[in-house]
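Section 3.1: Structural characterization of target chains.
Under the original work plan, the team committed to producing a structural model for every single-chain target entering the pipeline before any wet-lab resources were allocated. The record below documents one such target. The sequence was received from the expression subgroup and is listed exactly as submitted; it comprises 137 residues.
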Amino acid sequence: MKQLLAIIMMFWAGAAVAQDSSINIELNNISARNDVCQVYIRVRNQTDAAYSAFKIDLAFFDKTGVINDRVLIDLAPLRASKTSIHVFDMPDLDCGNVSEVLLNDITECTAAEGATAPADCFDAVKLSSRGDIAFVR
């Protein structure tokens, strides 16, 4: 009985690890600083792969659903099993009027030497957002 319980627990632990093998991109904050809109992104690379290039295409929509701005950001380097913070300026964006950010695409996803990138990096990404601004795909 104890052996069966140990096998079940090992299987469950393995399944939990497999479920967490993703790249979590969190829209952490959008705020004005010195009259410039700054976007804060937190990336949790929960995979065993490091990335030498990881470019995302983001579109920013206002409260009426109209696109306000678009940007291509390289989040690399992404180390394996590491969380990182990325801050970038959007000088033409009205921070207070953003209601939604769209992850339009991942334009480049290159694993570092010796690592293997997923066949579809877009599917490997999970999105989340803090605050009232939606972060969608």
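Residues 23-136 form a domain with the Immunoglobulin-like fold (CATH 2.60.40).
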